[in-house]
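Deliverable D2.4 — example input (structure tokens):
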């Protein structure tokens, strides 16, 4: 069988969706290691899948149709997030035009939640939740001539009826998975403006986060995992970890392949001092420039020191607000004091801090609380501040709350880019007002003397600076 993984080109009026974090349009391209792990699993089974990313190469619709017309794949696999649903359904219609007998397999949070939207015929298969084992079992069943319709964790159409097979157990041991099949993207040039050095790739050391933030949408993989687990068990899934030995093995390979910059995509990277220090030692050993996401209540003096000594060039802290009442309402599980303490520890050891501020997470939010949060954030003089607007993603507690209280513009969720759009309307704070506050906050911060002067001297080359400038332009103006 011929297997092809597709990242369809832009087929509608929108900018391409970012498919790893999953809730924005692309600002700077990043490898989808979740999808590439599925590719690697199939390679372990003896297949030779093809990986075609039409977004990276900015392929036109005409050339995409030409590809489909000439291609002879038996199965197409597509990783879909909420923002790419409309585009990927157009891709499905084009596949059906030229390859009517091919199977099309959808994975990711989009089809996991909006499953019924994808069924146009009986050769569309939805892989719900965590995909690696399910894709392997389904593909092997098709190859071996056994009944693929018995595969756990899939949905499909049969005789006009949608069938949702039983839940597939999640992975606990991530070491059982192969490393992402990065050889499919070895010729590509990825950059992360926060690291300011390349070659760059992404990696993970764990899956999911145990905390209860009401609005939270983790990475596209773990959100799909969480949606499916909540549907089955009415709660968040357990956390899965990789061993320190597995992490070191992958870092050694990446070092040998010439990578110099790593962005860890874990929903929560720092769990305890012992594990964090062990990973820091690995990163220091191979000389990586790297960064991660963490909670402020996980940052200790010991951890901050280890991060500083190991080449950590950013820690993304999701603070959202400096208002304790708002933090309590959104179940963030942190306080204003913990935010200041964490930033203090990191700055002490020269670890660059990126603050993530999420506008509108609570009906307690007002223009005054937003002004206070923005003032406090800027006063801290951290490395970067990222402003976004909360979205009531289906599957979250915040969605149910917003739906019940009539806070969603138009009455129902539609996919939006949280970097610039809002579908929230509070009685005292409209979507338009939040969008205006977001835009003005970005302009004031990114064009401030402090931001420009501190960032300029950290770039190692004109090339990296040009990539960062391009990313900033997209971030602000689309």
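Example output (designed residues):
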């Amino acid at each position: 069988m011929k297997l092809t993984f597709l990242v369809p080109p832009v087929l509608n009026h929108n900018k391409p969706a970012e498919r790893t974090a999953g809730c924005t349009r692309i600002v700077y391209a990043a490898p989808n290691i979740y999808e590439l792990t599925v590719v690697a699993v199939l390679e372990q089974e003896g297949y030779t899948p093809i990986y075609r990313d039409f977004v990276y190469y900015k392929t036109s619709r005409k050339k995409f149709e030409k590809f489909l017309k000439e291609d002879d794949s038996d199965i197409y696999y597509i990783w879909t997030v909420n923002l790419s649903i409309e585009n990927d359904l157009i891709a499905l219609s084009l596949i059906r035009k030229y390859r009517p007998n091919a199977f099309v397999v959808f994975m990711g949070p989009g089809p996991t939640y909006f499953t019924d939207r994808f069924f146009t015929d009986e050769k569309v298969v939805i892989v719900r939740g965590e995909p690696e084992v399910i894709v392997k079992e389904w593909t092997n069943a098709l190859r071996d001539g056994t009944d693929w319709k018995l595969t756990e964790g899939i949905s499909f159409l049969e005789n006009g009826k949608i069938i949702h097979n039983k839940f597939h157990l999640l992975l606990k041991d991530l070491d059982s998975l192969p490393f992402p099949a990065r050889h499919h993207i070895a010729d590509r040039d990825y950059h992360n403006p926060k690291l300011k050095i390349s070659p760059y790739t992404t990696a993970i050391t764990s899956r999911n986060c145990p905390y209860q933030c009401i609005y939270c949408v983790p990475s596209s993989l773990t959100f799909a995992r969480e949606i499916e687990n909540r549907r089955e068990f009415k709660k968040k899934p357990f956390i899965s970890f990789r061993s320190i030995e597995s992490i070191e093995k992958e870092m050694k390979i990446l070092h040998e392949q010439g990578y110099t910059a790593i962005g860890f995509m874990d929903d929560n990277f720092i769990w305890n001092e012992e594990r964090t220090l062990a990973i820091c030692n690995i990163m220091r050993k191979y000389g990586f420039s790297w960064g991660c996401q963490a909670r402020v209540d996980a940052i200790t003096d010991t951890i901050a020191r280890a991060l500083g000594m190991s080449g950590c060039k950013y820690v993304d802290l999701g603070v959202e607000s400096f208002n304790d009442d708002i933090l309590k309402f959104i179940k963030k599980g942190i306080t204003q004091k913990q935010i200041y303490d964490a930033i203090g520890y990191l700055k002490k050891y020269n670890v660059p801090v990126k603050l993530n501020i999420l506008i509108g997470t609570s009906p307690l939010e007002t223009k005054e609380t937003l002004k206070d949060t923005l003032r406090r954030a800027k006063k801290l003089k951290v490395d970067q501040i990222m402003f976004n607007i909360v979205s009531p993603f289906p599957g979250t507690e915040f969605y149910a709350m917003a739906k019940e209280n009539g806070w969603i513009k138009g009455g129902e969720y539609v996919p939006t880019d949280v970097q610039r759009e809002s579908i929230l309307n509070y009685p005292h704070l409209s979507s338009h007002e939040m969008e205006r506050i977001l835009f003005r906050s970005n302009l004031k911060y990114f064009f401030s003397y402090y931001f420009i002067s501190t960032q300029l001297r950290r770039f190692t080359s004109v090339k990296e600076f040009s990539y960062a400038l391009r990313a900033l332009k997209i971030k602000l103006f689309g």
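The longest strand covers residues 312-318.
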